[in-house]
User: Which sequence fits this backbone?
């Protein structure tokens, strides 16, 4: 693993988000939608100074936003033949993937941190539960990294950005919906599905309870997604 | 410098490269010639470490690509078949990214940048984004990218494809200039390109090597004789043909009359002889109305066609 090359890819990737409209569109839309949920729930919450209702919408938002961010990561490189350029430089495939992963994570982080203005607003009217806020943001970051790694995996499967978006959405939707259809399933299975669903773990963390199991869950999805993406890139080497 | 040793590459069950072996010497420009789909790009992709061979090996300075891929990639500058550029980036920004990714030390970067920009003649367009450049300039940026880490070896996959004739000449001159210091492998299916730029030629067809050598070598080795074509402003009869036949060094004559009452005489010449002057003397003597007299040397084109088309017919 070579950090210099990861940083080189990271910088290039982050710049490309800001060259295209992606970064601005994502940030503005994200802020607007969260802002709407924030104000909409602020008054009907019985005067409680909490961000939890807002956070609960974020998994749903990520479902659309993150595939839009990750769709071009590898698909576009393949389409414009720059993929061949990257992998014939003295860089390992995993370094390319990690550079792209951290760039996408940074962009999401910027979006998420910008919502902090709502927290500040809230704190002007009441006492905010610091643990809940820290847990909430931590949870969002972990959840985003899981979604991003699935998105990069999806993008590695095709050279078409739209297809990459759809595949990423399907992956993310699977982990999102899986605990919401447990009604139709036997009890044992429903526990399992609940465990692998992405917002089940988020609900704990956003209460301010930081449980290692939740962290491990998000990290394993992240690692798995990146591993699969690497596997797909390396597959060009097979006959 | 580069040894290609019994290289084999399968794509699934399709055999793209079939036991190719050749060497590239230090400091030469090697032309890699073949029809589309002959296996040129595949061989180049293996040398550059894009993918490993199915069997056989490639050694660069004694290191094998399967074991020392990263080290070899540092020595190679590669211009892929479809130029790999980021249209949103500026030229310097793109080159900067390549230098960072290739870990060129910070203190050498500005010197290397200057070198690549100068050699490739990009000074006038530096302020533009890559997407705004003409195809010829894009190709120069691609070359600059391949050169920027000052590699010993340059691998250029069809560097002149899609360019207009002026741009082609510019890029060729550029490659020649670069080739004075570096080892260059250049693939193409355009024959004059090889004749103009390359020291040696490898002709590859259907994944196999059909011929290796300098252009002169190939012309000497290959069967086929020089031809002379004469065009006269009059019809001719058999007696003239017979008289020409008597000139030393002539193997065979065919002639036909055109609709405009001209006659075209084609003469096959014995190897190593040049009877043009004798023929001219004869024409003057007979007062034949000469329009044209020209020699057709066996060209790389003929050799290439002979090697590639013939084989395709046989299959």
Assistant:
């Amino acid at each position: 693993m070579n950090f210099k090359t990861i940083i080189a890819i990271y910088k290039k990737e982050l710049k490309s988000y800001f060259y295209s409209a992606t970064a601005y569109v994502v940030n503005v839309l994200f802020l607007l939608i969260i802002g709407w949920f924030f104000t909409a729930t602020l008054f009907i919450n019985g005067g409680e100074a909490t961000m939890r209702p807002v956070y609960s919408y974020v998994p749903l938002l990520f479902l659309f936003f993150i595939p839009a961010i990750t769709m071009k990561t590898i698909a576009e490189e393949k389409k414009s033949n720059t993929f061949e350029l990257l992998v014939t430089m003295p860089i390992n495939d995993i370094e390319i993937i990690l550079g792209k992963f951290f760039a996408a994570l940074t962009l999401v982080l910027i979006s998420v941190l910008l919502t902090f203005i709502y927290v500040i607003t809230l704190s002007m009217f009441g006492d905010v539960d610091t643990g809940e806020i820290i847990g909430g943001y931590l949870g969002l970051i972990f959840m985003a990294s899981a979604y991003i790694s699935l998105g990069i995996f999806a993008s590695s499967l095709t050279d078409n950005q739209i297809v990459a978006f759809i595949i990423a959405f399907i992956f993310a939707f699977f982990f999102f919906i899986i605990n919401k259809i447990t009604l139709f399933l036997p009890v044992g299975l429903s526990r399992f599905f609940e465990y692998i669903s992405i917002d089940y773990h988020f609900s704990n963390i956003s209460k301010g309870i930081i449980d290692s199991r939740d962290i491990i869950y998000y990290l394993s999805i992240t690692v798995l997604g990146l591993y699969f993406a690497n596997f797909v890139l390396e597959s060009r080497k097979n006959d | 410098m580069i040894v290609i040793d019994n290289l084999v590459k399968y794509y699934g069950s399709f055999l793209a490269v079939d036991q190719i072996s050749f060497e590239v010497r230090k400091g030469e420009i090697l032309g890699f010639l073949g029809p589309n789909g002959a296996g040129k790009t595949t061989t180049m992709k293996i040398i550059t470490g894009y993918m490993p061979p199915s069997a056989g090996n490639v050694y660069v300075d004694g290191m094998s690509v399967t074991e020392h891929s990263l080290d070899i990639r540092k020595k190679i500058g590669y211009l892929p078949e479809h130029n790999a550029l980021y249209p949103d980036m500026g030229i310097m920004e793109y080159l900067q990214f390549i230098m960072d990714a290739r870990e060129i030390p910070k203190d050498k970067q500005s010197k290397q940048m200057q070198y690549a920009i100068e050699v490739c003649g990009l000074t006038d367009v530096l302020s533009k984004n890559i997407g705004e450049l003409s195809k010829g300039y894009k190709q120069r940026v691609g070359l600059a990218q391949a050169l920027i880490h000052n590699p010993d070896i340059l691998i250029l996959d069809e560097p002149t494809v899609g360019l207009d004739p002026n741009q082609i000449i510019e890029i060729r001159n550029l490659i020649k200039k670069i080739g004075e210091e570096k080892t260059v492998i250049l693939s193409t299916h355009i024959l004059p390109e090889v004749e103009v730029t390359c020291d040696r030629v490898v002709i590859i067809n259907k994944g196999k090597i059909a011929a290796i050598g300098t252009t002169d070598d190939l012309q000497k080795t290959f069967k086929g004789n020089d031809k002379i074509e004469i065009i006269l402003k009059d019809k001719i009869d058999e007696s003239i043909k017979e008289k020409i036949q008597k000139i030393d060094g002539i193997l065979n004559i065919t002639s036909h009359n055109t609709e405009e009452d001209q006659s075209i005489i084609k003469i096959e010449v014995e190897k190593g002889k040049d009877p043009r002057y004798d023929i001219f003397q004869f024409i003057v003597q007979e007062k034949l109305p000469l329009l044209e007299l020209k020699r057709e040397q066996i060209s790389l084109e003929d050799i290439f066609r002979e090697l590639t088309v013939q084989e395709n017919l046989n299959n």
